[in-house]
Each structure stands twice: as C-alpha cells, then as structure tokens.
Amino acid sequence: MKKKVFVFFPDGVGLRNFAFTNFKDIGEKMGFDITYWNNTVFSLKDNLGFNEVKIENHQLHPLTPIYSRARKRCELNVSKSKFKDDVYPTYKFPFNYKGFKNSFKTLYTKLLIGFYSSEKGIENIRKKINNLERKNPKYAYCKAQLEEHKPDLIFCTTQRATQSISALLAAKDLGIPTVAFVYSWDNVPKAMQVVETDYYCVWSEHMKREVLQYYPFVKDEQIFVTGTPQFEPHYDKSLKLSRTEFFEAYNLDINKKYICYSGDDETTSPLDQYYLEDLANTVRSLNSKGYNLGIIYRKCPVDFTSRYNAVIEANKDIIEVVDPIWKQVGEHWNEILPAKEDFKMLYNVCEHSEFVTNVCSSTVFDFVAHDKPCIYYNYEQPQLKKGIRDIGQNYKYVHFRSMPSDKAAVFCTDKKDLEGLVKNILDGELSNVAEGKKWYEVIVGKTPTKASETIWKSIDTILK
C-alpha cells in the first residue's frame, strides 16, 4: 500500500520549493500518495490540480506571538553568552512602543526574556508555547483533519511559522511522524526554529552542524542532509530561452550587454535605490568609453515601496525593469506568493545577464549556478543617518562566515572602485565564480540537482 504523506504549507514561503518544482512528481514516481495540507490562501487544487486538505482555521493562542518573540530573543541572548559573540543582538528587531497595546506587549515580552534567557529557560518557554497551542481551537481542528485522513507522515515545508505549531503538535500527539525542512540559508543562527519535529531536512553538512550547535535538544540521527529544491530549476534546460527570445519578451536591446541589479527588501538595504543609481552612473560612464551596456532591474518580490522610481525614471535609457512574477494574495509579506512562471524568468535573467550586483542577497548562488559573477556592495551611502540601518552589518552575520574565502563574491568597498570592478568583470579579468562555486557547495551541498529526490528518500527511510 502507498504511504500517505501530507506536505504541509503553514504559509506561502514553501510553495516555490515544494509546489512549483518537480517535487510532487518525483515523490509520486517513488510511490508516495501525496496530499497538500494547506494553511495558505493559495488554492493548490484550483491552481495546480493537486490533492489538498485546506486548513480554514488560522487561529493562534493570543499569547503565542508574545512568547515566540520572547523565545527568539532568549535564544539570541544565550547564543551571545555561549559563543561570546556580539553578532547575535544585531538579529533583534526593535521593540514597538506605539500605543498602549503594543507597549503592554513589549513590557510583557521583556518580562518573559528576563525569566527565560537560559538554556533551561528556553526549554521551558518552548514547553509553554506548546501548552498554549494545545489549548488553541486550531489544535482540535487539525487533529480532527488528521484523524479523518490518516496520513503516515507530515512534511512541514518551513521550520519558522508559528501557524504550524498547533498542527504539528496534533500530529505528534497522534503518533504521526513529523519532519521540518529548514527553509533558508541564514535561518539557524537567527533563532528562527519555531517548531520541534521528529526529524529535520537541511541543505548541507554545514547547516547540519549549525542545527546541532544551536539546538542541543536535536540529535544527529534526527537530521537528514538533503539539499534544497530552491536551485533545481537552474539545471532544467527546458526553461532556457534563446537570447533573441528572451530579449524580445522583455523589450531588451539585442545589441546591449546587461548587468542584473537584484533589489533588496527595505529592512536589509534601506538605501538600496542609491546603489542602483551608482550602477547606472557606472554604466553611463562605461558607455561613453565604448561599451554598450544596460541594466536589468529585478526588484525584491516583497518590496512594494516607490523608492526606486526616481532613479529608474532618470535612467530609463539604461534601466529595464523586469519584475519577478509574484502575486499578492493577502495582506502579509508571506502572502506574496511566487508564480511558477517566475522560475523561467529567473533562469533566463541569470543566463542572459553578464553578472549580478546586489546587497548581500542569496542571488549570488542563483548566478553562480549559471557561471556568472556577483558584485556585493559594501560601502556606506552619504544618505546614511541616525535611524537608518547600515548595510555593513549584513556581512557580519553568521551565515557570511561560511564563505571559503573573501573572493567568493566580488566586494565593492568603495564607490570609486565600482567602475573598475564592472569593467574588469566584463573584460574577463575578474570573477568570483570559482570561489563562489566552493561557497555554493558549502551552503547548498554537493548534489544541488538531487534535493527533491533525496528528501523523498529520507522520508522513505523514516517511514521504514
């Protein structure tokens, strides 16, 4: 009899990896009966024809968000003390004191942090969150769904969503094995492991070491190194358009060479538009010296600010906007969901750009998969003033310590150097691709094309 696996989407971030790739097809070919347990507003049945069980109850216990915020800060406090490292406080978002309600929540959170900022305290606050969520009506709702459909295993597509806690507790209390996929390359040191499951799938041996380092309650045998489906489409040649097809589709000049500027969210890079402007000025200068260059601007999918508009308008002869194909289906950032067509677009942006420039984005890996270099901006803008976050702290984060060398990306540390770096890359005299591939292997693992298959093999091992 086929084993029934619930692929659980507590929010939309996992859709890209587990609904729009070949993940389902691979699992079905390996003999699994797959149903999507869907807590998102995106209908997998209507849009993709997948079997789904919709979770219509999106309740959290009223105290869960407060305890979760406190849990994260407690973990960061413990990491700072345990590893004697001042990077961990920089992961904290500021407290909110706007209005009585927010002020009360902040004071309550601070009180909890005072009580629970120890390894034993973290264990207790996690138990408290679980106790709260077992009282949440969503727990009984999800338990009833599981009793009705009787899955053999729950595969949760992200470890970081509070919406998943009650559902996974219901599964565990029914004796159904649970597996969580660690969603992003920077998540582990940032204290973003919200759920506790029986098993974990991680991208690489590097990420496995991190999980064991930060979460002593997780044992070696609970972790499967699988890779991530995130990069699999870059190896799917059927997505490739010819240069002529791609340039016609996006109104690009066939005679120009294009540099991709990959935009960032406002939190990570609040002055991001000025780096785009610096690149535009560089391109204009190089064009006056005989080059014929343009810029493809691909915005961050969850950035709906107008901050780039003036720069784009002033440089419309140079900058072509190629927006990612994502759709806003709700009010929150995690309800801005990718369309399947975006894989094809991103593949061809990587394939037909000379290289990418950005502030600390993981697009370095998308482009290195296509043997294309990356420039990281790492200098302050003159518009930086008190209250605006300096992008320099991004490169001090723990996940950047995984670079095998400082040549894994081309770092621009002074605006005056940008033109020379761009010129050298275009002239074939500078590249980070060789070192970038080593970094890519550290983060993504040795078999980036086999991640979906490896996850299903891990699930099969667990079920046996």
What does this structure look like?
- It comes from Hyunsoonleella flava.
- Keywords: Transferase.
- GO terms for molecular function: transferase activity.
- This protein has 464 residues and is an alpha/beta fold.
- The protein has 3 domains: 4-60 and 136-227 and 448-463, Glycogen Phosphorylase B (Rossmann fold, 3-Layer(aba) Sandwich), CATH 3.40.50; 64-130, no CATH class; 236-444, Rossmann fold.
- The chain is 40% helix and 13% strand.
- It has 17 helices and 15 strands.
- It has helices spanning 15-18, 23-29, 44-48, 64-83, 99-116, 119-135, 137-149, 165-173, 205-214, 243-249, 272-287, 309-314, 341-352, 363-368, 418-426, 433-444, 451-463, and strands at residues 4-9, 33-38, 52-54, 153-156, 178-181, 199-202, 223-225, 257-262, 293-298, 319-321, 326-328, 336-338, 356-358, 374-377, 410-412.
- The chain has a 7-stranded parallel sheet with strand order 3-2-1-4-5-6-7. A 6-stranded parallel sheet has the order 10-9-8-13-14-15, with helices on both faces.
- The longest helix has 20 residues, at 64-83.
- The relative contact order is 0.12.
- The model has no long low-confidence stretch (mean pLDDT 95).
